[in-house]
Design a protein that fits this description.
heterodimer, A: mainly alpha, about 75% helix, B: alpha+beta, Rossmann fold, OB fold (Dihydrolipoamide Acetyltransferase, E2P), 12 helices
Amino acid sequence: MGLDRYTRGTFLREIALILVAIVYCLPFYLMFAIALESTEQTYRAPLALPSPPQLGNFAEAWHTGGQSGLPPAFVSSAIITVSSVVGLIVLGSLCAYTIARRAGRLSNVVFALVVIGIILPFQLAVIPLFVAMLHLGLVGNYLGFIVLNIGLLMPLTVFLYTGFIRALPRDYEEAARVDGAGIVRIFARVVFPLLRPITATVAVFIGISIWNEFFVARIFLSGSRHETITVALYAFSGENLARWNLLFAGLAITIAPILLFYLFAQRHLIRGFTAGVKG
Amino acid sequence: MAGITLRSVGKVYPDGTRAVIGLDLEIGDGELMVIVGPSGCGKSTTLRMTAGLEEISEGEIHIGERLVNRLDPKERDVAMVFQNYALYPHMSVFENLAFPLRAQHVPKAEINARVERTAKLLGLDPYLKRKPKALSGGQRQRVAMGRAIVRQPQAFLMDEPLSNLDAQLRTELRAEIAGLQRELGVTTMYVTHDQVEAMTMGTRMAVMRKGVLQQQGPPQTVYDEPDNLFVATFTGSPRMNLLEGRIEHDDALWCVLGEQRLPVPGTNGRAAALARYAGRDVGVGVRPEHLTDPADAPHDRPRLRGRVRLVELLGSERLVKIEVDARPIVSDETIEVARDVDVTSADDVAGRGRALVTARFDAHARVDAGEVVEAAVRVERLHFFDLATGRAIRDTG
């Protein structure tokens, strides 16, 4: 009834939303604008429109970033992100399933530890962790960094999965038990597929945070052959000279896969936050 | 196929709640036993204990010759139909039906054959590729049945399988399930809170209340001879009218309701038992169908007089609510049942000093609210209850 009427209120709401959208778009503008500017312009008038646009910046960033261009860093980031996300989803969902479905003090204690794991800042543990991992030979290689990522993001993953599983009706599992399925089949064939919305959420959430992560990667991978893309981009901002235009061109390349992934998974992502499972 | 035997089965939850107390129940091979009772009576817990989804605190459950107390659900060889069907939402109808067979590592060719046969039996063959989401309520219910049937289990366990359907579909599927069960001859434990389902479907029914079995037997026997006030009120719709009366014994036996006296036939076996209550108050029960328009009854049938408070026309008959000069029985049992049916009649039961009795008159009978009428009473079908224990007064000899 009121939906098709365009009132003054609607107009004002639209204006307000457009303003908010502009604020959100501003960083994107800055990134693409600076990425297209000449080095000289980045110091003279960084906020102005690039004139003339330097499309060559993208190619230069792609070839000169990091130790030997951005492509190897891209591959490193992809291997680390995908492996960490898969590891987190497999281990996190299993762990959360146990916590959510086993009534008892132990599972409450484990869940409390998980929550503490989310709250405690990682920076507190970074030095002892670095030393320990160095001794174990887990610094500067894929395995070490993937294990580290899985460990660091496990609390959040378990927390997200536990909430979802707790809201999942037990009937499906009970039906499967009576149908003669064992615990492995129940989890793999019945429970895990039902977790799809939250799995999508976890994959996007965790995936983006690993892809964008800089601090830990800088400490554990810097100087190795397996630098991630964020660490590789950091090379553009040297001690004496920062190549802002190349840095931003590199950033634009970096976020492209994330934007694509987000567009693709958006529907699942929202559903994971809002809905349970309908039978 | 195998029967199911429950011996002194009890369920105590960690917080001390006793959901089921000393339950003895025997379901014969191929029999359909309906367990019925209001919510919280322990019927679902009983079913879940039999399925192995709930631990058994006391007693023994046998399926066939096997003691199953400590067996996992998958080792019990029973199939269950859930109230909300619990169809796996991400699987097609075919996969849902095949799931139990795959879990038992049945060869693929046999899975296909059995799923197809089951689908055909239930008229599901056009929908095998659909997801449950794309099915109607009735179709989902059939898939749930199919998933149970395809296993060819020792027994079916059904937990209110029709309660999510609309009234008409429920009636249809009621008959369908009962027919299917007879055809397959699989021992079935069927749990419901709907006494109509219990009456129409079961070979026998078991009425539970607060974890205790109240009565079991063929539905007609339970209806005709309820063992106590609870069973009397729970079975039948409209409910049995319950009044406080007094037994008098002179040359004959009389039941006194307020100012009125109804003769109690002496031929009945319980006359002797009733005679022992002479001079005492008892509970008197009369089903609405035994309280009719005098115009349709033999002229010598005793009458009960009262003022009409409400007339409900149902098309085929008229339900006449008559206020009579007697107190209604207000016991925990009657209030509980009334509350389970609907809240207003609970207040009705609790709040009145004079009883409202329901009589069944012909649809064309001329009765109006406010009138004083007489209803003919089939006195040989009166029920009597001990007010202290709530138990039916029967011939003890």
